[in-house]
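Memo to structure team: turn this sequence into structure tokens by end of day. - J.P.
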Amino acid sequence: MSMDVSDYVLKRLREWGVEHVFGYPGDGINGLVAAFGRADNQPRFIQARHEEMAAFSATGYAKFSGRVGVCVATSGPGAIHLLNGLYDAKLDHVPVVAIVGQTARSAMGGSYQQEVDLQALFKDVASDYLVEVNVPSQLPNALDRAIRTALTRRAPTAVIIPSDLQEQRYEPPGHEFKQVPSSPPSVPRTTATAPRPEIERAAEVLNSGSKVAILVGQGAREAVEEVLEVAELTGAGIAKALLGKDVLSDDLPFVTGPIGLLGSRPSYELMRDCDTLLIVGSNFPYSQFLPELDQARAVQIDIDGTMIGMRYPTEVNLVGDAKSTLRELIPLLRRQSDRSWRETVEKHVARWWETVERQSMLEAKPVNPMRVVWELSQRIPDNAIVTADSGSSTNWYARCLRFRGEMRGSLSGTLATMGPGVPYALGAKFAHPDRPVIALVGDGAMQMNGLAELLTIARYHRDWPDPRLVVCVFHNNDLNQVTWELRAMGGAPKFEESQTLPDVSYADIARCMGLDAIAVDDPNELASAWDRALDAHRPTVLDVRCDPEVPPIPPHASAEQIKDMSAAILRGDPDAWHLIMQGVKTKAQEFRP
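Reply from structure team:
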């Protein structure tokens, strides 16, 4: 059957099982857009409001589906707009394929309209595989390699297709010199296990420890049973890197929760006091939150040998799949008979959750943002998917939200860019249209791009069997995370010209778009507001006016550090006394019996 190059691209995507393509049209991809029409919109074109949002949605889709995410954009400005979302995928190790248009081949090099050197533009973000297709017979190999590479290396790849080529007749590669064929689409799967002698060395390290700590990241997601078995044998406590927050249930009494600046007190204590460390599937970068460099013997397991042994002086580095490597390791481990370390960890964890509850229930002006997430935790469905944006709200996602059951969650873990919260939620909803999705987003991120994507939600929500998508806006009129960084790291008071946001009702805007909306400025209304949002029959914006002066105090903050920050605040911070009192009240909850 005769077809154009664009028709063949969509046919090949269907053969790969691709069901959604996130994008925005432009004349550099007119051939592709026309092909979607001829193909009865299969795979389905999901129109974002901006190419960056398309890339974020593809990344969120890939994170929550386990499949490759695909985004498409026109040449020049469209391609440029993709970059931030693709870098988010690159740094969080997510498989995304970008299909990008380019000016016609006859105009290349002629400083033509919207002509940009796309090879140079994408050479870093798509460094694992980047190709420009210049003759029809380069397909299917170019597209197949882009998808296989993205899946195998967990990275973004890019395929550039000039606009005139898209409308040419497709010709398959021939059985001749300088022609490159391809194989039928199949998802590459590998199961690598570290060498037996290295596994035996790792067992010796773990068996020698009396105070074992485990740190898991997203790379441990398929090895939950094995991680728990190791923890049971060694009596270990388990901390979770932010991208691994959904790997283990927070209802487990020995799971200490998040680690780092956004971490918990028991995770801090776990690393402070352990004598042995096992890192599974994590590249957590902040070594100051790991044990002192000469304190613990350490073992690391990671599928990527280039990322191993670089955060802590690990004695044994096991390069392999977490599940299969742990399965080989478990028979070599002895059960720790002295459970006093485990009992100490569990006591710290229980006390921490009591502390978080007390901190969440503290009065604020008007609503304590910690309580927003605490109330969500009491009623969130066990199969919910939660996305978080970058900002002070990330602290409350990390510390206050208890994961359990089949809950999933993610955010921009490494790039920590603002803006992915709402488009991630869209990607999650297309990956799992039968599951409720909640996005926890600051008002800065909503003003940056989240408001626009509410239109995308309004457009597509009728297609979802479960229409529940709740966008919770932490409405404090402040770029709050940076404000706190200025205070705590720079010793500088809040600079209102850069930090204060224009006030707007996110609930009113949502209603104008045809969505449900609930505005909350009374903490006693939070529980019922969440109940309404989670029972709604259409997507809902929960607009909560939060106190910007509730401090995201890290678990290692000392009274002296708080005193120093207070001194900086008194040099000119607006509403300084209220800010100090909120900080003192919050920190004091850690010391209550």
